[in-house]
Amino acid sequence: MHKLTRLLLAAVLAFSVCVPAFAVNPDEVLDDPVLEQRARELSVQIRCLVCQNQSIDDSDAQLARDLRVLVREQLLEGKTDQEILDFLVDRYGEFVLLKPRLGAHTLALWGFPVVILLVGGFIAYRTFSKAPKLSEDAPELSEEELQALEKVIDDKL
């Protein structure tokens, strides 16, 4: 087999493994494609409370399945996306959302990186503004000093 063909085959195989696998079971899928799309969009916003670093759309945990079914049931009842998210937050707390909402209770979470960046920038500015600057009117080295400098450099090399 040609090297390029093998390389291309290996690349295709590697990328096919990287495709995300969704955990939604066929029996969970809604008949209405619009509602199913809304359910999938909601599912990627909701944290699996068992896995904690995955959305319920990606998780195979039983609780994630139960939450996916709950989301679909509420969609069939005619609830809005916001009503469904509010229901889940009321029931499980803010932690159920993969992206926490901006509010008084999450202000530190959202503001802390900005504060750290500002403090770091201020410290860097103060540090570098006090650094000694090369003077334009600094005296030139004498012939003796130049020879001594060259000798030191030659000795080091």
The CATH topology of the domain at 18-99 is given as Helicase, Ruva Protein, domain 3
Helix content: 55-70%
The count of helical stretches stands at: 6
Quote the distance from N terminus to C terminus. Answer: 53 Å
Could you describe the largest sheet, including whether it forms a barrel?
none
The string of secondary-structure elements, in order, is HHHHHH
Strand content: under 5%
Q: Using DSSP, what is the number of strands?
A: 0
State the secondary-structure class.
mainly alpha
Tell me, rounded to a whole number, the average pLDDT: 82
- CATH structural architecture of the domain at 18-99: Orthogonal Bundle
Topology, pairings included?
Blueprint: H1 3-18, H2 33-43, H3 62-76, H4 81-92, H5 107-129, H6 143-156
Helix pairs in contact: 2-3
Question: Could you explain the architecture of this structure?
Answer:
It is a single chain. The chain has 157 residues and is an all-alpha fold. The chain has a domain at 18-99: Cytochrome C biogenesis protein (Helicase, Ruva Protein, domain 3, Orthogonal Bundle). It is 58% helix and 0% strand. The chain is built from 6 helices and no strands. It has helices at residues 3-18, 33-43, 62-76, 81-92, 107-129, 143-156. α2 packs across α3 (62-76). The chain is elongated, with a radius of gyration of 30 Å. The mean pLDDT is 82.
